[in-house]
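Whiteboard transcription, Tuesday session. T.W. wrote the C-alpha cells on the left side:
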C-alpha cells in the first residue's frame, strides 16, 4: 500500500469513528408531563400518536426506559444532573420547598454552555434553585396546565433555533398530558375519544365508567401532545438543521392514574424514550431491550458535545446503543421514592434485573398515605370498581395501601405487578440476590436513608406541616439539606 493511500485510509477510519462525536450536533430534548409508554409505537391500541410513532419507526425506541423517581421535579432534576434524587437533593416537588443540596451541582446546562452550546428551555423547569440552570433563553416558564396558547411552544422554538449560530441545546417541555385531562383545546384533537372508545390500562386491574372517561381524555391529551411535537419537528425541518440535530423524546414519569405517578410500580417509573438522528449514518434505528434510565442522558450529552466529563455520575452514555443494538449493558436498574408533596411521604427503593423486580419499603407495615391521597382525590367510583375486582387484584391494592417490607414481582409472568412473591420459597435466591444488589447500590450512591435517623427526622418535619389532617406548605420547615450527609 502506498504512503498516500495509507494516509487516505487512516483519514477514512478517523472520520467513521468520530462521526457520532466530531460533529457536535444540536440537541433537542422533548419532555412531556405525566405519561408512560401509552403510544402507538409501544403497542397501545387506543391512542393516536402518528408523529411519535413515525419518529420511533425511523429512530430508536427504548423498550425498557425508566426514571429514577416518579415525580415531576425529582425526575427533571435527575436527568438534568445525571444523579439520583437522593444524590442531588431534589427528592420532592419544587413547589413544596424541596431543592437540590447545592446550587453548583454540575448539570446539562452549565456543562453544555461551557462547551460552547447555546442553551434554551421552553416550558417549566420545576427544579430548585432555578438559578442553578442558567439557560440563555427561557420562554413560557409556567406549568401552563390550562393549556393556553399552545402554538407558542413551536413559535418560540422557531425563534431560538433560527437565532442559534453555534450548536444549541433546547429543552421543550409540554404540559400535556398532566391533569386536568382536557378533552379538547382549540379543536385539538379534531376527533376526541370518548369512554365508549377505550378501556382502562391493564396495570389498573380495575374497570369503571369514570376510569374509562378519564382514560379517553388522557388519550386525547396524548393526541394533542403528538400534534404539538409534530409542529415542533416541522419548525426544525424548516430551519435546515434537522440533519445536524439529535432528537430525544421522553415522558417525565408515568400517568397520573391508578398505580402510576407517585408510585414505584412500573406504571409510575417506566417511560417512553425515543432517539432520532437523521443525519448520522452510524445511527442504527430499531428497538433496544436494554435497561436504560433518564440519568443516562447527562453522560450521553456530555460525550456528544465534547464537554468536560463530570466525575462519578451513576449513569452511562447511550452512544454505544445508538450504534449497536446487541452490546452488553447494565444488569440491574435502580429507582426510588421519597415523597411528592407533604401528603405522601413513603420512602422506597427498587431494583430490577429486567425480569424480577424488588421494592423495598422503608416504613413497612405503615399505611402509605399516597394511596388515599390518589384514590380520594381523583377516582370517585374507586370503591365500586374495587369491590367488583377479582381477589388477586384486591390483594394488590391492599398491598399498595399497607405494604410489607419487601415486594417481589416476576415482570415476565406478572408484568402488571399483581402478585407479590416475596414469601415464595421458589424465588428465594432471586430475592436474596436483589436485596444484595440493592444494598450495594445504596452504599455506593451514599443513600442518606441507610441511616434510619435521617428517615425519621424528615418524616417528623413533613408531619409537622399538618393542620387538621392536611399539610400546609407554609408550615413545612425542611432541613434535610443540612443533615442528610453528616458523618
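and on the right, the sequence the group agreed on:
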Amino acid at each position: 500500500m502506498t504512503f498516500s493511500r495509507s494516509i487516505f485510509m487512516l483519514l477514512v477510519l478517523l472520520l467513521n469513528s468520530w462521526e457520532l462525536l466530531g460533529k457536535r450536533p444540536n440537541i433537542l430534548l422533548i419532555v412531556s408531563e405525566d405519561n408512560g409508554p401509552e403510544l402507538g409505537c409501544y403497542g397501545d391500541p387506543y391512542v393516536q400518536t402518528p408523529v411519535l410513532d413515525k419518529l420511533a419507526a425511523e429512530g430508536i425506541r427504548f423498550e425498557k426506559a425508566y426514571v429514577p423517581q416518579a415525580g415531576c421535579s425529582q425526575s427533571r432534576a435527575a436527568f438534568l444532573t445525571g444523579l439520583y434524587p437522593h444524590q442531588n437533593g431534589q427528592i420532592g416537588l419544587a413547589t413544596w420547598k424541596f431543592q437540590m443540596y447545592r446550587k453548583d451541582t454540575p448539570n446539562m446546562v452549565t456543562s453544555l454552555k461551557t462547551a460552547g452550546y447555546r442553551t434554551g428551555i421552553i416550558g417549566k423547569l420545576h427544579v430548585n434553585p432555578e438559578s442553578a440552570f442558567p439557560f440563555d433563553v427561557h420562554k413560557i416558564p409556567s406549568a401552563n396546565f390550562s393549556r393556553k396558547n399552545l402554538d407558542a411552544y413551536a413559535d418560540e422554538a422557531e425563534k431560538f433555533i433560527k437565532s442559534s449560530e453555534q450548536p444549541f441545546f433546547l429543552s421543550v417541555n409540554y404540559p400535556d398530558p398532566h391533569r386536568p385531562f382536557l378533552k379538547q383545546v382549540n379543536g385539538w384533537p379534531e376527533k376526541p375519544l370518548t369512554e365508549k372508545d377505550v378501556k382502562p390500562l391493564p396495570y389498573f386491574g380495575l374497570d369503571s365508567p369514570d376510569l374509562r372517561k378519564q382514560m379517553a381524555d388522557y388519550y386525547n391529551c396524548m393526541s394533542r401532545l403528538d400534534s404539538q411535537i409534530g409542529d415542533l419537528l416541522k419548525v426544525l425541518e424548516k430551519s435546515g438543521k434537522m440533519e445536524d440535530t439529535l432528537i430525544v423524546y421522553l415522558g417525565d414519569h408515568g400517568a397520573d392514574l391508578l398505580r402510576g405517578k407517585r408510585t414505584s410500580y412500573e406504571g409510575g417509573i417506566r417511560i417512553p424514550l425515543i432517539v432520532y438522528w437523521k443525519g448520522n449514518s452510524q445511527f442504527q434505528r430499531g428497538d433496544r431491550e436494554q435497561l436504560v434510565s433518564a440519568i443516562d442522558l447527562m453522560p450521553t450529552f456530555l460525550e456528544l458535545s465534547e464537554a468536560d466529563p463530570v466525575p462519578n455520575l451513576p449513569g452511562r452514555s447511550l452512544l454505544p446503543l445508538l450504534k449497536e443494538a446487541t452490546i452488553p449493558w447494565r444488569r440491574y436498574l435502580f429507582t426510588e421514592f421519597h415523597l411528592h408533596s407533604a401528603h405522601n411521604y413513603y420512602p422506597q427503593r427498587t431494583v430490577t434485573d429486567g425480569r424480577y423486580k424488588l421494592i423495598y419499603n422503608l416504613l413497612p407495615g405503615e399505611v402509605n398515605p399516597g394511596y388515599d391521597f390518589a384514590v380520594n382525590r381523583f377516582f370517585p367510583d374507586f370503591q365500586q370498581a374495587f369491590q367488583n375486582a377479582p381477589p388477586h387484584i384486591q390483594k394488590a391494592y391492599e398491598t399498595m395501601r399497607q405494604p410489607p417490607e419487601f415486594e417481589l414481582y416476576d415482570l415476565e409472568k406478572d408484568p402488571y405487578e399483581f402478585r407479590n412473591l416475596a414469601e415464595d420459597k421458589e424465588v428465594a435466591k432471586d430475592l436474596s440476590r436483589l436485596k444484595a444488589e440493592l444494598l450495594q447500590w445504596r452504599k455506593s450512591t451514599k443513600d442518606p436513608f441507610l441511616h434510619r435517623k435521617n428517615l425519621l427526622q424528615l418524616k417528623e418535619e413533613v408531619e409537622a406541616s399538618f393542620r387538621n389532617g392536611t399539610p400546609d406548605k407554609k408550615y413545612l420547615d425542611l432541613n434535610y439539606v443540612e443533615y442528610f450527609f453528616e458523618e
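Someone added at the bottom: Confidence is low (pLDDT under 50) at residues 8-18.
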